[in-house]
Amino acid sequence: MVARPAASRRDEPLRRAASLLALSLLSCSLAGPADAQLRGHGGPVRALAIAQDGRTALSGSFDQSAILWSLDEGTARQVLRYHEGAVNAVLALADGRLATGGEDGRIALWQPGQTRPVATFTEHQGPVVGLALSPDGAELASASWDGTARLRPLAGGEARVFEGHKGNVNGVAFTPDGRLVTAGYDATLRIWLRDGSDPTRIVTLPTPLNAVAAAPDGEIVAGGADSIVRLFSAEGVERAAIEIGPSPIIALALSPDGTRVAAATVAGAVAVIDRRAAKPLFNLVGPGLPVWSLAFRSEAELVTGGGDRLIRRWDMRSGEPIGSLAMSRPHDELAAYAGDRGAEVFRACTACHSLTPDGGNRAGPTLSGVFGRRIATADGYNFSEALRKLDIVWNAETIGKLFEVGPARYTSGTKMPEQIVSSAADREALVRFLEKATQAR
Fold first, then answer.
1. Is the CB of residue 174 less than 8 Å from the CB of residue 192?
2. At a CB cut-off of 8 Å and minimum separation 6, what does 349 contact?
């Protein structure tokens, strides 16, 4: 554990003033009544957590901030800024503290009301994308794209490393008896004892896994790229598979009593499933943008965060939104390229990249004007130092190479998820499409 040094007396008033101003502006932009959508983030809402009392929520965003919300009042209590990159994971601890994990590989612990973390953890060498608290509240687990999960005592001491996944570890959870469960891009679900020994069970599936959760009775829930929610016994034996739609599952949440599962997809659908019966109950109908995060506030209410930068609340008795719901369909910037194979290949990238200047930066920089631009020079985006040092100018050859060998090999230090287009014809179509669609205008 690395403690953050105390702020100097000279800087502290400026920080407090900046925080108060940001909170004031944020509160003015909220939708207003406690039953309405929560507005405040400047980017997609990547992570959500609900405190044990059900009255406060913590959200993390691609805009590099976390926000602590009063759900009763529908207002923001505090804006937390520390991470150099997207806040991918958030957690409310049993003792009232908060945890955030970021694209920068760091984990921060916060005491509500304080403007800086009370402690930070910096062991991970890649983005942190998942956090979980042990059943006894003593240890914090994290999942990272550095290929590891780590478990650290909150009272202090070294983190234990869980290695074995071949690629990104996308999710982490605890079973009620305290075992660790991890889900990876390598299509494996792994169950571990907390001592850091080899996994007691490895389940290999036909698809990369993006999310995992564990129910109060020990059953394990996993979701991945094939749009299927899978249910496993506490020992890793598959019990059921529920298909919920044509697009990848990117987030899961269990109701407090464990009877229902909410599964969110990159296409914006949210399926609510009866876990014991292994059957869908209903779908939540939103505006069609990716739903990156969700959390149950109670048996009767679900909270979701998505690509439209909003936090929405849903009545789990009816499946209807609580308060007004802006239902305007987002503009499809690929509609003008119907039938273009390159546009079809690019559609998987739209969650992270826009094509035009007015589309702005998302999880990744806008691609407007990318041809002829040196790497890591797009305006308004926080690039890693490793990318800034690379000598690459984007053109047909370099973009094609990026998708041939993958971002991890071609642009070491990138925050970009691993994307390889194995078909040479598809790569060529993608490059031709980008050359047309990204011309600055």
1. no
2. 419
Residue 227 placed within a domain? yes
Q: Judging by beta carbons within 10 Å of its beta carbon (0-12, 13-18, 19+), is residue 431 exposed, middle or buried? A: buried
Q: Is position 296 within any domain?
A: no
What gap in Å lies between CA 214 and CA 208, rounded to an integer? 18
Q: Note down the domain range covering 367.
A: 335-437
Q: Report yes or no: 242 and 279 within 8 Å, Cβ to Cβ.
A: yes
Give the integer Cα–Cα distance in Å for 329 and 346: 20
Domain presence at residue 73: no
Residue with tokens 């287009």: 421
As for how many domains the chain has, the answer is: 2
- Measured at the alpha carbon of residue 114, what is the angle toward residues 108 and 116, in degrees to the nearest 5? 45
Task: Give pLDDT tens digits for 186-240.
Answer: 999 999 999 989 999 999 999 999 999 999 999 999 999 999 999 999 999 999 9
d(CA 108, CA 433): 41
Please write the tens of the pLDDT for every residue from 157-183.
999 999 999 999 999 999 999 999 999
Are 127 and 235 part of one and the same domain?
yes
CATH code at position 387: 1.10.760.10
pLDDT digit string, tens, across residues 316-325: 999 999 876 5
* Signed CA dihedral, 218, 219, 223, 226: sign only: positive
Last residue of a domain, one of 243, 265, 295: 243
Residues 6+ apart with CB under 8 A from 136: 178
Rounded to whole angstroms, what are the CA distances from 243 to 225, 279, 280, 291, 343? 11, 9, 9, 17, 26
Main-chain phi, psi angles of 340, to 5 degrees: -85, 120
Using alpha carbons, select from 233, 205, 206 the residue that is nearest to residue 217. 233
**CATH number, residue 146:** 2.130.10.10
- 357 φψ region: left (φ > 0), alpha (ψ -120 to 50), beta (else): alpha
Strands 180-184 and 45-50 turn out to be unpaired
Provide the terminal-to-terminal Cα distance of the chain, rounded to the nearest Å: 48
- Which of these three, 243, 260, 294, is where a domain ends? 243
Instruction: Kindly state whether residue 166 falls inside one of the protein's structural domains.
Output: yes
